[in-house]
Specification:
123 residues; mainly alpha; 80% helix; globular
Length: 123
């Protein structure tokens, strides 16, 4: 895998992780969201005007473009498992930025995933 391809994939993973964190910050700000026939317009309006949701959606759009650039250089069977690295980024960031607890069992599970990604990347 070339350095450029690797950088596109890593950038895509990081942008995707940042988008997830912004969306979670948005839900933290708005509270539990429920959709019913009576409130769906109001709920979507609240989401569409919340800064974290806007930022998260924008990062998703950018991550999509960056990811496609990476996919044009690497087989999907190698690229797609790289998305799993987002588990590490999100776990660490959620702990420090959102105050979420990351248990030992969760870290072990993430470690197993990372080991699998490493094996795939070496193939």
């Amino acid at each position: 895998m070339s350095a450029a391809a690797f950088m596109f994939l890593v950038a895509g993973v990081l942008l995707n992780a940042a988008a997830q964190l912004l969306l979670k910050a948005g839900t933290n700000h708005l509270g539990v969201l429920t959709l019913t026939a009576d409130n769906w317009v109001r709920t979507f309006t609240r989401m569409a005007t919340e800064a974290h949701f806007i930022g998260g959606a924008a990062l998703y759009a950018v991550s999509l473009v960056v990811w496609i650039l990476g996919l044009s250089r690497v087989p999907v069977s190698i690229a797609y498992p790289m998305l799993s690295l987002g588990y590490i980024v999100n776990a660490v960031a959620a702990h420090y930025l959102l105050g979420e607890a990351v248990t030992l069992q969760r870290w072990l599970g993430i470690g197993v995933i990372v080991a699998g990604v490493w094996l795939v990347a070496r193939s």
